[in-house]
Amino acid sequence: MTRVLAAAILVVALVALTLSIGSAGIGKKASVPAAKETDKSKRDLFFEQLDANKDGKLNKQEFLKLADVAVKKEDSRQQLAKAYDTLDPADKGITKDQFRQFLTRKNADNK
Q: At residue 67, does pLDDT exceed 50?
């Protein structure tokens, strides 16, 4: 259940991000980067959208915004809170690299 929920959150979030980015570039031609580069840049852009105060880290409230795209928001919020506490026990904020690794792990767990 947790894996399915995490996968759903990731897919919905990445689709929403892709649509918002894609609509901004209508009519423009661009080279298509390699798949890994595309995933990395999408994750980085997603991180930047969540980083409301633009300090380069996600605090717990910013991280929990991931739950906003889930169907069961409260269940997702609880699971994400546990994940945040595991990723950042000192509550200093999650870096872009930590966030990217978290999404990569969640994506791999769901395959």
A: yes
